[in-house]
Fold each of these.
Amino acid sequence: MIKGITVVLYERTQTGTDAFNAPTYTETPVAVKNVLVSPVTDEDVTDALNLYGKRAEYELCLPKGDAHDWKDCRVDFLGQSYRVFGKGKQWIEENVPGPWNKKVLVEAYG
């Protein structure tokens, strides 16, 4: 049976703006269980570089029912930090046979 791991998602909450009027955020760590982590293919790396200008490291498959906002958030797993980028993909929950229905890409962070 395939099992995911627990990852730490740092949810971002806007707390204000800086001197250049750019938003500032605080990060709140949240443990998300049963996340599948898989390395990306060479084709995925090339596609991400062409579309977003970022080098994809891993693809995260998120469990059904997950309501967190993953966009541009930091996530920790396997002893390292990563940043979510791109729109991600989501399928209709009832039409997917396994326990996962969303995918996001992450790049190395820090």
Amino acid sequence: MSNKAVFLDRDGTINRDVPYCSRPGDFELLPGAAEGIRLLNEAGFKVIVITNQSGIARGYFTEETLVRIHDRMKELLAVHTAHVDAIYYCPHHPDNGCDCRKPKTALYHRAAKDMGIDYQLSYVIGDMPLDIQAGRLLGCKTILVTSDKNSSKDINEVPDYITGNLIQASKWIMRDFRQVRTR
């Protein structure tokens, strides 16, 4: 059975984009993020975080610290009765040439295989053009969230929707998914 999913970027989409967030105490949810994730949970979407974390390769923090940061994210989401189903991250330096660093799609493919995800029923939400590019490569619908950055980004790949926060993105997904299902 194929599942529908929402692939979420982390920094700048779920939480404030602190350069190389290296401590759990630096992790702060953006307004509306937990509520948006809860809406997706309630609608039966798998919520999967896909994030580039080159701070590990740069020596700014360890993978153990990243686990603690993600535990903090899960705790903050749980307060709002929200959760993520899985987290996949690229620990490599951008110059490494790995296949898992967005906009490359190896992490998405791993998640899809692990969880039986159908890209045609799925969405990618992020705050950067590379998130939109990855979503397009996969055949997912894409949403650019501008909540934590200047909204005048240089975007080569036009997203299906642009909004200021994750809750508005989630509401758009609910409307879009209903329309697709009723056709």
Amino acid sequence: MDFAISTRKILIIVIFLMSVLALCAAFGLGWILHAEPVSAGGGCKSLPLRLNTNQLVKPLLVCDMSFNKGKKLMAPLSSKLQSIIDAAKKQNNVSDASVFFQDFNTDDRVDINENSKFYPASLNRVALMIALLKIMESKPDSVPQGMVYNGADENSGQEILPKCALQKGEYYTIDQILETLIKCSDNNAFYLLTSSIDNSILQDLYNDLGISVDLLNPDQPKDYDFMNTEDASYFFRILYNASYLTDNNSEKTLELLSQTDFTQGIVAGVPKKIKVAHKFGLATFVNPDNQLVERELHDCGIVYHSKNPYLLCVMTKSSAPIANIENVIKDVSTAAYQFENSR
């Protein structure tokens, strides 16, 4: 009997000690996970972007984690991208340039010249499509099913002419207009939409994303350079996350962006088999004598690397030939792809 009692006591002590160890292990693991998220899907470390509604819910749009998390790991890419920009400035191929890079698997990122601001140019087309689809989700009858284009040719004189465009006198469904807007960056489609639909929907999107610009006040002095690369990245991040539009509309927009006909920037820096959902923007500023003062050429989008999908946004100012600026963006894209391919 004494032996049986001793054995039972020992068993109770062992079970107690194992329970204590398990509790300590669970607490320690929870503390580690709370202190250092391991992936972009693991939670928000800082700077969450939420939709500012008048309701009790505040939907999460973008979840930014700690910028210091992968700083050492990203140092080689940061140094390489900075050297490309510095060399381009030295060769007068750009006067200013900014790069935003984000790995979607790890949330590691690089932000070169993050304080520089630019005019978004045709990147506004992505914003316009998102804003239109958003209003169509909640108020389908507020957007016409189709329209006739009766305006002038707004593409006349463009340095990069679209490969397709709305034709005067022709009727187009809203889907056809959006397709031409994104795939071909058609000015006719852009002006038809903005002249036919309340601009407040685009202002609402900018407000939701925390981008400071006033599109509705005609007396407000216009600061054309109001967007940085991180601002531009929001358009693509909310589509990739499907956090602003429905899954179907997010997929629809990204599919159109993957068919964009501009291939001289980000696309030129990655293998042909890699899908890229992106949009370029080009604004040309001239003096009263029609002489070039400056160009702003941008390319932003998602590179669907098979293992490490990532976002890349490059925005530039320059008075150099377009081909020179395109090569700078290509070099940045090549460096980003090679870095991700080696991880």
